[in-house]
Design a protein that fits this description.
Length: 222
């Protein structure tokens, strides 16, 4: 979605579209969760508490990496998590946070998602960690998140939900859907017992296969 977009209004509309798609795909509800995209020296993020279907591009808040803004609306209370991801991960172009049902259920149990399925590798490693709990909107929550995101693109947030980042808004939404899908599959597998976990060497093979995963030659190149 972002694709070198230099126009604030256009990027703000893409953030709104991502929020609506997030709810339509069932990984979020109402105005819970939040979405942002890197912009110039800071980032654009959804405002606090406004229903997604009423948002307009002018409602999307521009924040600096120091948390400052000249806009009138308050940013999402979780802006610190977004800010810290952009500050610590140069490859982060967009961030998505959702209260998706199965990821949240696992986070309430403080359960990591292990390598029960090879697609766990989409988050960047051999598992999807669950961060320790901290009050929403606090720096403590963001610090816990950063620990769980070490060498990862996604994590669960203790008794809260999930968060992920990627190159752009399209990819962040894709990853958010994948994480919730994995959480749902893991939950269902647990109903019959403890799933068989792929070992490190098997996951290394998966990572090698993922090096070219989804990459197609340009049109006309065969």
């Amino acid at each position: 979605m972002t694709k070198a977009c230099a126009d604030r209004e256009s990027l703000a509309q893409q953030i709104i579209d991502s929020c609506l798609a997030m709810n339509a795909q069932g990984i979020n509800q109402g105005s819970a969760g939040n979405v942002s995209a890197r912009f110039e020296d800071g980032f654009l993020i959804t405002p606090s508490g406004l229903p997604y279907d009423r948002l307009r591009p002018a409602d999307i808040v521009l924040l600096g990496l120091d948390g400052s803004t000249a806009d009138n609306l308050k940013p999402s209370s979780d802006w610190r998590m977004h800010r810290d991801i952009y500050a610590c991960h140069e490859n982060a172009g967009a961030v998505l946070h959702a209260h998706s049902t199965f990821a949240t259920a696992l986070s309430c149990l403080r359960r990591d998602i292990p390598a029960f399925h090879y697609m766990v590798a989409v988050a960047g490693g051999n598992d999807i960690r669950c961060a320790d709990y901290a009050l929403f909107g606090t720096q403590a929550l963001s610090d816990n998140m950063l620990s769980a995101l070490r060498d990862r693109r996604a994590c669960l947030l203790g008794t809260h939900g999930m968060i992920c980042f990627h190159d752009d808004l399209d990819k962040a939404l894709w990853l958010g859907v994948e994480v919730e899908t994995l959480a749902r599959q893991y939950w269902h597998a647990l109903q019959l017992g403890e799933p068989v976990i792929l070992d490190d060497s098997q996951m290394q093979q998966v990572a090698a296969q993922f090096a070219d995963y989804g990459k197609q030659p340009a049109r006309g190149e065969r």
